[in-house]
Amino acid sequence: MASMNKKWWFSCLLLIASAVSAAPLRIGVADTDAPPMAVLSSDGAKLTGGLSLDIGQLLAEELNMQPQFVILARRRVEPAIEAGKVDIICNANPDWYGNSARLNWSREIYPLTERVLSLKGVPTIRQFDDLAGKRIGTQHGYHYPELEYLWASNRSTRETEVRFDLLFKSLEKQLSDVAIVTEFIYAWWARSHAQEAAAFRLHPLVVSSHPTMCALSPQSPLKLDALNRAIERLHKNGKLKAMLTRYQAQE
Description:
The chain is of the alpha/beta class. Strand 2 (about 40) and strand 3 form a beta hairpin. Strands 5, 6, 7, 8, 9, 10 and 11 form a seven-stranded mixed beta sheet that branches. Strands 1-4 form a two-stranded parallel sheet. It has a two-stranded antiparallel sheet with strand order 2-3. The chain starts with a helix and ends with a helix. The protein has helices spanning about 1-20, 50-65, 75-85, 150, 165-170, 185-190, 195, 225-235, 240-250; strands at about 25-30, 40, 45-50, 65-70, 90, 105, 110-120, 135-140, 155-160, 180, 200-215. The chain is built from nine helices and eleven strands.
């Protein structure tokens, strides 16, 4: 009996030591990220679901770390990751960050494609010059380098919305002519707004297709090699693919 008690206490101590030794992985999430990228609580203070939650949990588990999700105002995303307020921000790309050269970047997790959306009846848009003269709806805080030449030469105007769902409202009210939307996010929105989505069409023009990855703070104790190895293992063991398939199956 004494031997069993010793083993039980030893097992408990190992569990406690493991919990204590699991370092926190602080994962930043922009408060402007829309479902399915991020699902926030009603007060916007907590991450309750979405791709950011699932990817963060997978990475933390693979790294033997404890995930801690930090909701950031979009304007605070870049300074927060650079200053080490958070360790990583995923669903990201260097082209979207003004301070990307001062951050570390992981290998690709999955691709993200942006296309042009409009109300039905708008002539087919196949090339960037077809956007000339149009009011282009975009999301606040995001960069669109492929379209900068149109705005710089006043050949079109940029209309900015603070939330993804407001892009659709702007089109419905004819406050903009087209909107730049992420296929992944639009498909998610359209499933739960079928009646509204019936009024829209996606055009053939692909505005951008970028690999998404994790930005790693240069101040973080987590090293880039360790992060990349974790992502590589998630690709090889099929966990990442299985998680992404669950989202894609809903499209």
